[in-house]
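User: Structure tokens for this complex, please. No commentary.
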Amino acid sequence: MTPVTLGAACRTYLGVHLEATRIHGVYMSFSSFDNAHSTPDTATAAAGLGRRSFLGYVLAGSTLVVAADLTLARPARGAVPSGVQIPELYDLEDLQTDSAAPTSQLITVTINRDGTASFALPRSEVGQGILTSTTMILAEELDLPMNKVKVTLAPARPELLLNQLTGGSNSTFSTYTPIRVAGALARQKLLEAAAILFGTTADRLTTTGGVISDGLGNNATYGELASSAASQVVEAVEVVLRPPSDFTVIGKPKNRLDARDAVTGKKKFTTDLDVPGALPTMVCRAPEHQGTPKKLNNLARILKMDGVTHVAVVPTGVAVRARTFGQCIDAIREMDVEWNPGTVSGESDSTILAKLRGQELPMVVPNVPILAETVETNVAFAFRSSAALETYSAIADVRDDRATIWAGLKVPILAQQRVAEAVGLAQDQVKVNVITSGGSFGHKLFGDHAIEAATISKAMGKPVKLMWHRADEPRQGRLHPMATSRVRATVLNGQVLSFEQRHTSVTSDFSHGLGEMITSQADELDPLGLGGLSFAESIFTLTQELPYNFGVLTQLLNEPLEFEDKFSTGSMRNIYSPDVCTAAELTIDQIAKKVGKDPLEFRMEFLKSERVKTALRKVAKEGNWGRPMPKGTAQGIAIHKEYKGCTAVLVEIDCRPQTVNRDLGKETVTGPRVTKVVVAVDTGLVINPRGLEAQMQGGAMDGIAMTLTASCHLRDGRFLEASWDNYFYTRQWNVPKDIEVHIIKSDSDTPGGAGEAAVGSTAAAVACAYVRATGKMPAYFPINHGQISFKPKSFIPPVPPSPTNGLKLTR
Amino acid sequence: MPKQTFILNGKPVTVNVNDDVRVLWVLRDLLGVTGPKYGCGINVCKACTSHINGKAFNPCAVRVGDLKPKDRVTTIEGLNETVGKDLHPMQKAWLDQDVSQCGYCQPGQIMAAVALVKKVRREGREIRDSDLDQIRNICRCGTYFRIREAIEQGARNMR
Ligand code: FES
Ligand code: FES
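Assistant:
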């Protein structure tokens, strides 16, 4: 992998999108470019084949094995017109898809003799439903019932390089075409085999439910044909994909395939696996963020504790292995450890915020007429924990000559590489098994848990089943970085002359592979003006798009180098977008107010994308925008465009005292309640509408939490949160009674990303509604960050005691 | 080491382990019953929710030594047997509403939902919005809305 290289003393990027023409009332619309680069026509034209026609491969084998190259997903691109923000043509999904292209290898589908098809997906299932949607795509092209299509998660395949990264909502987009090609090719080969068997031609045969018939009474199952359709040699074959109008599976709502296992308790997560000898293992961690152990003073005493088998001091803390996790917790609480300070010793939210403020890039105030009025927004966003409900966990069995890992990982190849480094083995001596995760949200992009487990296994000379305590997650786990966003807009005669946004953020850690993806593409990206940017700036530039006609429009990121490695950071169901979108949309509401326009009417007038307008119109209509609302309640509306798709969200919020002050017991943050959410989403071709709806609902819950309740507090180098009753992710008492998701029929032939799409627009709509209901503009998000609504748990010991009063609390 | 005996999913079990090990670890680490999930270990997240003698409880907050031999512990794995069916109506509702995303919280959600319906029925009433509002189980994937719909459906079919 290309090492991380850093340029100047601070990361800045000037991406000025001049559209001066608009100032004089001439509106240029670039919306026609929206999908221009990703249609199948342009994609296949590049390969010299006709529409929907692709090359696939039949591999040599005793049963039918077909393959397709992931480069098939590579979109062709046209020239870049000036005045268009980069994401309009080329966004993070393209980047991920393109980065995958030059190194990509084959993905294979096998037709088994029992009539099933199997496929190992080089992606990760973290709850987003990709196993279900991939099964649907294969079932479609194979003409096979979904229960005969077996999709599993592939272990780390080093040869795939970045083709095995699940992030940025890219998965379905980049695997859609190759998987279809493999499926269609398998069906074609089976038809040819049947034609020989029946003494006819393939075009006279039909496939239904895994059976081929000639209509004259001759039938053969895929299973019966699998061997005769197999090839002795590798051959390249041209295959035609079915037109979307023929789809019978894709686009129809389907329930998740793993749902039954999930509701019966059979679905296995990492800590549910039974790996011989891998006993429960936990780590006693430092009080300060990223602190390290100096020494354990009572080793002999800990080793004598009930159930304890091994203790080892490792770089991240003091590890203990025992018969049960409960005994690990008891041992951690007994440990007497001396600690080195952490990486932000003495720092608090307020000191970090002051440093960020000091690094905000100046606005380049455009030359606007003296009479122009100014609208300013200046908001801060607190640290947030990206923890999933399943805490970080990994099983590792490290031996002298090999290592085996089991973990939920979105970039298994990188984990494999880092594990190999950590335990002194060659990469090919490390086997990494990808296990379905109990949520990711950015959490599982990094291999922290796998590397730590391997390090401990090596130190103890035993297999270990490592699990983080809940308290470890907000204190030592990955955080969404604190940031400030300043926006200044100038307005004259109802026109917006300039809109400048300066986003200043604690450094985001991109060492999970996105960084490498971007550097490997640097040359090709140069025409787009990205050359010379850091990873963070590139990602910011590739993801941020404000689709409004706002004159001189600049959105710049600064991640001051002084924060490099200070915090354990990562993305959290998006990288920059929710914060950037919230600050921008809040400003847009203020501009609308200044020019005396309704927020909806104003957005419709200035939006330049027809897709976004359609989505906005939809939520306004379905959500009855502008209906009379009682005092203390309000509607809010916002849009977000990213990942080749867009969302519009309308919410209603209740900020009346009887709602805000609801008392549901201690450490229960009630506050303003979002009572209604209406989402309209256009994300291109939809594989599974039911899954997409679920993703929108979940994203909306994240958006509500980000704006109203969820944050981590840094005090003297330590994060205070240690429990779900400290870190206030949306709970049932915060959930709207009414959530509607409207899926907009798209002209696009390719699927876009969905996992993160509703987060930013919901966060922004809730913020706008809050301001409209209360008349107050918050300086900090989430709005409750100013008060600490819980009693912080102990830092030494770093984990709370296990309660004993459970039988008194039965219900 | 003391012998701990209780009834697990309809069958008596005996485990050799000290009294103060919490029931969650006895289930998961010693008996291999992994339906109840760990999400906090301090009776906050409710991912481990199971039933004791028909009521919801959180095994992360109960010492195994406090269980009596007659105590009936039911985990998600044994829920269907309490109604003598392949699936409990609440599990069926969960499937119909396609609630699960990552699925990690869902065993606890379902066990909490079944106990909640039974509790309000003991009080001689039906589920209200305010009851749903007070469910403390975390779902970090944000499936709350479908959970509410599933509980209403499951309750209708729990007669
Ligand atoms: S693990 Fe038992 S309530 Fe969280
Ligand atoms: S489904 Fe993932 S935590 Fe609830």
